[in-house]
Specification:
4 helices; DUF983 domain-containing protein; membrane; single chain; binds zinc ion; transmembrane; DUF983; two-stranded antiparallel ribbon
Length: 149
């Protein structure tokens, strides 16, 4: 029986196979990038490479290039990752917050809904910026560039 999942390129003409891959000229350059340092620098809105330039302009906009060292920070696609991590962590905090407000304050369910919604929204918006910086720092450390950029 024929293998329904042949290895890439086995029966595929070379030009079709090449079209599927993102264009990269030559082998990937080898980088030694300190992941922990890159995440910490990103967390504090600094360029993961030099630690001096700003990573973000405005609230969440990643700059195209570092103002200090010229590193192309705009080509590291964070996409939905930061929002996912932020929401997941805030939701994990929400469970003990619901329990605590219920036990300590005995608020009516409607007041709890309003108060906790406002509180988690503010916490999410504050945390998102830090998480996005750390996320782009991680992508930079792993050299996960957007192939389309
Ligand atoms: Zn830099």
């Amino acid at each position: 029986m024929a293998n329904p999942y042949p290895k890439e390129g086995s029966n595929v003409p070379a030009e079709r196979n090449a079209a599927r891959r993102p264009a990269r000229s030559g082998p990937r350059p080898q980088h030694h990038r300190d992941t922990r340092q890159a995440i910490l620098r990103g967390f504090t809105n600094r360029c993961p490479k030099c630690g001096k330039g700003h990573m973000m302009r405005g609230y969440l906009q990643i700059v195209d290039r570092c103002e200090n060292c010229g590193e192309p920070l705009g080509s590291y696609p964070a996409a939905d990752g930061p929002a996912f991590f932020t929401i997941t962590n805030i939701m994990l905090l929400l469970i003990p917050m619901i329990a605590a407000t219920w036990v300590w304050f005995r608020l009516s369910p409607f007041v709890m809904l309003v108060v906790l919604s406002a509180l988690t929204s503010v916490m999410t918006l504050i945390l998102l910026r830090y998480v996005k910086g750390a996320f782009v720092g991680y992508l930079w450390a792993k050299d996960e560039q957007d192939p389309g950029a």
